[in-house]
User: What shape does this take?
Amino acid sequence: MFQRIRHSAVSQWLAEFPAVALLGPRQVGKTTLALEFARGTPGHSPRYLDLELPADLARLADPQPYLESLGDALVVIDEVQRLPTLFPVLRSVIDQRRRAGQRHGQFLLLGSANGALLSQSAESLAGRIAYCELDPLCTLEVPAAQHRDLWVRGGYPDSLQAADDAASLRWRQQFLATYLERDIPQLGARIPAATLRRFWTMLAHHQGQLLNAAQLAAALAVSGQTVARYLDLLVDLMLVRRLPPWAGNIGKRLTRSPKVYVRDSGLVHALLGLATHDDVLGHPVAGASWEGFVIDNLLAVAPPGTAAWFFRSAAGAEIDLVLEPPGQGRWAIEVKRSSAPSVARGFHTAADDLNATQRLVVYPGHERFPLGRGIEAVPLVELQRMLAGIA
Assistant: This one.
């Protein structure tokens, strides 16, 4: 059992809001975390409903009387985006429970389609719901001895804990196939599975690069609008990250295209057929895979409300990740896979342009040390602890 970083956030929000939505891709551990809360909830026995099960779906055929019959029990509803008509009913039940004196901790809603769930719930449950995203496992959540496997296999628990690298790769390949052949069609997306797999694989080959929609469209023989639709879908499913460029007014011409990362390094490697640590190190994607891995790990522990960008000017000044944790200034973060990291002049220029309050280089070592000019080399786990410790 892994101790998840977001456990405390979900606990806090359940104590403050009637409903909490826990969002994340399939198999990331949402159900396991939700059942921990269900077992520890006082009062009536908590109820767990999985809307992929016909029996549970039938219980909600007429949802209002059923939910009212549960009294003040915490109700966990899994794959809630499959029943969008439920949200107005939840609003009514929440308000009824409020009038009876129950102000918080009524519903824990689990969803694996971020954009869809947010749009369905925002209007119906405005002011009654908090949102928390659960990412794949990060380095703060697993023993140090598993950190190399975490990069190679990714953070999905079943992939990380597989018997060997080959079994882990088979799990991830089946995970990809399930999304392509079952989950995405169930959302109503009419995209050929083979085409979407090619697109997803192309993103893995271009991990961490600027989005070039025209190039992708030409390779797939589709329009730029179609590429945008494919990308929006994978972003909404929390399988791809679209990292926006810094767009502040600093009097310089800046890159306007976002960077695109396949979220979870293990999925990057599975899309490219890389099973072992040696396979990854021998592939051109190794550096970009490590960069995406670091960004995923940092954003997985960043406090709510943290803004994230990258910075690139037309003159070549560049920063891999710019973070603004609430009340903590602006952090300029460069990612290096070398054990003896250094930074180019463009990083200094960009950090000065942004008035960065922290100038950090994340590298795969174990010691923190200065690099000069206010820059420090920091191990990934130490920088995660800095972010996670921000109140």
